[in-house]
Amino acid sequence: MVTVQRRLPLWDEPRPGGVPPAGRHDRLLVGAFAVTVLVEGVARPGLTWRYVVTALALVLVPALLWRRDRPLVAALTGWGVAGLLSVIQLTRSVGDVGLYSMTAVLVLLYSLVRWGSGREIVTGTAFVAVVVALGMRAGSADWAELFGGSALLLMVVSLAAVFRYRADLWQRRQREVRNEERVALARELHDTVAHHVSAIAVQAQAGRAVARIRPEVAVDALAAIESEASRTLAEMRSMVRLLREEEAVDFSPRRGVADLVALARTDATPTVEVLLDAALPLLPPPVDTALYRMAQESLTNAVRHARSVTRVGIHLCRDGDVVRLRVSDDGQNGAGAAPEPGFGLLGMTERAHLLGGSLSAGPGADGGWVVEAVLPVEVPA
């Protein structure tokens, strides 16, 4: 399923998530900026109002530390200082009152566009535009300087917008991957746990029926219940570990076609017959696992839902470039009507489609229920 998200207007754009806090490297950079301001303020020749200008430039120190978590406040502070210096230059008719290190306000403009909300970006950039126009007027800039300054500001804004957009795409992709993983885990959980719990229920019913007349059979049923419960707990722990760990880990154990023979049983009702084609090739892991899970889920559905079922057959064979799985039972499904599709059938269908195959389920020609899956021998790219 493809989800289409409508882009919000810039004014309503929220702040991006995952804003990193100020760290050690930020403090080192800010410290270097403060030292640069002090050195330039003391050593630069011909600087008007040297101490006032240096003190005003040092106001940018806290603004640089706020630039990510409070981008609008930082931008208004830094560019407000730049605007104040331009006002001083205009009203006092003095010479150069700016420090070269004041170009750090470009970092504040970048942070505003990269980390601010839409309202903060609109408000902050409008304020920056006014300050830039004031600075151009105070410096009596010619057309070349006006063009160069405008191009520099546009480049800073564009870079911030590009990095913001790329980070947004990456976060959306991460959400899509997590959603896909949740669906896969839900499918795996249903296929695995439902099968084991169904087996536990069948063994419990059998043990209860013979507990009084044949206690030794009831003990065997309890042993089977214990074994199924232990396997269920182990596989659930594996899934929980997968959910809790950030790095991907494989389900353990990952079952495949070779494990289908373990589903066969002749000492209980229904009996399960497994027939595997000797010509089956070595299958890719996704196909191998999907075939086992489909057979397991089909068997679980037959045990849980079919009435008066005595036999379930699992047949797997190769047919050219595809592998065919057929699971059939001899139960009664009620007037041949298809039941409401559940999570099991939905999960099997999703598995088949993801691998480029198909799945069908319905009443058989001779009664019972038949599930047929066709998967390619090679996984499509």
TrEMBL record:
Signal transduction histidine kinase subgroup 3 dimerisation and phosphoacceptor domain ranges (all copies): 181-246
Record carries keyword Phosphoprotein: yes
Example GO molecular function: kinase activity
Residues of the Histidine kinase/HSP90-like ATPase domain: 289-378
TM region(s), chain numbering: 48-65, 72-91, 97-113, 120-140, 146-165
Catalyzed reaction equations: ATP + protein L-histidine = ADP + protein N-phospho-L-histidine
Alphabetized UniProt keyword annotations: ATP-binding, Kinase, Membrane, Nucleotide-binding, Phosphoprotein, Transferase, Transmembrane, Transmembrane helix, Two-component regulatory system
SUPFAM superfamilies per record: ATPase domain of HSP90 chaperone/DNA topoisomerase II/histidine kinase (SSF55874)
Coiled-coil region: none
Name the record gives this protein: histidine kinase
Classification lineage: Bacteria, Bacillati, Actinomycetota, Actinomycetes, Micrococcales
